[in-house]
Amino acid sequence: MIATEKDKLMMHKARITGTGSAAPERILTNKDFEGIVDTSDEWITRRTGIKERHIASNARNESTADLASQAGLKAMEMAGISAADLDMIVVGTVTPDQQIPSAACMIQEALNAENAFAFDVSAGCTGFLYALWVVNNAISAGSCRKALVVGVDRLSTILNWQDRGTCVLLGDGAGAVVVESTEKETGIVSTHLKSDGKAWDLLYSTYGNAAKPEILDDMDLKPYYLIMDGNRLYKKAVSCLSSIGLEALSHNDLTSDDITLVIPHQANMRIIQATAERMGVSMDMVYTNVEKFGNTSSGSIPIALDEAHRKGLLKTDDYVLLVAFGAGLTWGSALVKWDI
Ligand code: UT7
Predict the structure, then answer these.
(1) Which in 96, 134, 207, 234 has the greatest CB count within 10 A?
(2) How far does the centroid of ligand 1 lie from the alpha carbon of residue 280, in Å?
(3) 291 and 51 in contact (C-beta within 8 Å)?
(4) End-to-end distance of the chain based on CA atoms, in angstroms?
């Protein structure tokens, strides 16, 4: 059968051509938390692997849109494209700067991406993979050629800074990838997404004014904050991350030996280790940066992907497996054949 022009476009794959990330300048260490809540560096390190996290400041222009735009610029520079080349900007976030408009439209303005259309996707910490799924399908369907996919969150703005069970875990940051249409047999190989609304109450936000710690008086704080059932979420996270990772492998007739790097959502080092064990993957193949960033929600995977690529850990034709889990509940995977 001879492919028509439309068929050819329909067969296009989506290829990641650039990565970028950005984090606020201010770092809060576990020691700093000892002056905020009843906790210790020892407890946080042993139970989570986290040593420090970045916390945004309004005074330093580190809004959600600011951080995302910085990450986007770096990704576009790597891809060798300009903002005017973008058809689409899709942003995974649960902390846009304002309820209306979307973070994506504010990022569009900051980048001057005048030819794109832009919108947010809300899927908790799985937001980046949901956004990537949207763009992958838009490119496969021929409705988009070049897109910016962003994962960004500023969870510091929705924390209860008096709840030691949550405030020590989270941080702010953004990651972005440029995704382009390609005729090559490379790029995004598969995506799998799931959600379970029955368990939404394991992690949600509620209305109320949380107190701001004195050392963070330049920080934005919204009139609602997070409530988390950490222990139950922990068990769900391990089971969902490992099962979706294994599903991606079996769907593509691959084994863990075929994968160069697994990049899991960075929530807790113990969750990452237990997930790797269940997947039969050695920790040498698992990228982690939770010790430096804490859990940055939608930012977590694209920040880690950007770091891994810039450190030279990914080569052309390597398979990298991304797995995420978050509020909703939501979870998902993307298997990517690397080609930058
Ligand atoms: O990104 C979305 C997904 N997020 C997650 O998946 C997070 C999942 N959950 C976790 O990472 C872990 O459950 C936590 C790190 C939140 C908690 O670890 P845990 O081993 O499950 O501890 P726990 O909740 O069972 O609490 C054990 C004890 C409690 O004290 P008691 O009741 O045994 O006296 C807590 O009050 O640790 C206490 N605790 C703390 N102690 C010192 C809780 N937070 C702290 C803290 N410092 N920051």
Answers:
(1) 96
(2) 26
(3) yes
(4) 32
For residue 102, the one-letter residue type is: S
Q: What is the Cα–Cα distance from 218 to 89, expressed in whole angstroms?
A: 29
**Does the annotation mark 58 as catalytic?**
no
- The whole-model pTM stands at 0.96
Locate the ligand 1 atom nearest the alpha carbon of residue 326 and give its number. Answer: 2
Q: Model confidence over 187-223: pLDDT tens digits?
A: 999 999 999 999 999 999 999 877 888 888 888 899 9
Contacts of residues 38-45 at CB distance under 8 Å and 24 or more positions apart, as own/partner, are: 38/164, 39/164, 39/168, 44/168
Query: How far apart are the CA of 230 and the centre of ligand 1, in A?
Result: 6
Q: What CA–CA distances, in Å, run from 58 to 26, 66, 81, 131, 262?
A: 11, 10, 29, 26, 34
Residue 49 has pLDDT above 90, yes or no: yes
Name the pLDDT band for 1 (thresholds 50, 70, 90): very low
Which alpha helices (H) appear in 212-257, and where do they start and end?
230-251
